[in-house]
Amino acid sequence: DEKTHARPPRSGNGSDQENTKKTLKDENEALKKNFTGEFETVQRFIIYKQLQWSLYSNLLKVHTCPKCEEGWELHGGKCYYFSTSKSTWDQSRDDCRRGGGDLVKIDSREEQLRLRQKMDYDEDKFWIGLTDSKEEDKWLWVDDSPLNTSLTFWSGKDPDNWTGTNPEGEDCARMGERGGADDLKCWFDRSCKDPQKSICEKSAETGRVTRV
After folding, report:
1. Residue 197: other Cβ atoms inside 10 A
2. Where is the composition biased (Basic and acidic residues) (predicted)?
3. Domain match, 50 and 103 both
4. Which of 21, 61, 127, 139 has the most CB atoms less than 10 A away?
């Protein structure tokens, strides 16, 4: 008799593997989509914050607003004090230092012009921070910097170190005297012991936040 052999059952391993691969592929695609979406969200958030900060920066600006104490005048980022009392050059310098500054150092033609415009009367004569008391004819500012010979405003034949009233001569600089000086050339050497008004100078205070 012919023996009947039972056909072995078909294995399902192949289809299971295909299903698993498909599932993994679908999950991978879903993860990629989620990641891409989250990345784009982060990018949009960063751009939004950058725009927000840019707008805020335009609304809030920090300005350096120079200001001076009461009695001092603001010009070009510096504070000036024009004394009304008269003192020797050394005493005037001490007074300026007590106020946080020093006798004025003139650094430009524009500064000379600003100061000159404050002198309306013949009695407006002021000590400035220039002297050759350490060495004759070697003029130094109060910060010990030498006078720039291309930026001087001596009047006429000054400095002449005249000894007519003081045998020690004239070793300190004064500006003013409209009646005897033309244009901006209004510096004169005078005896440091003569009582004169004075001009003090110091840096303006800064650092105020202003909304615009």
Report:
1. 19
2. 18-27
3. no
4. 127
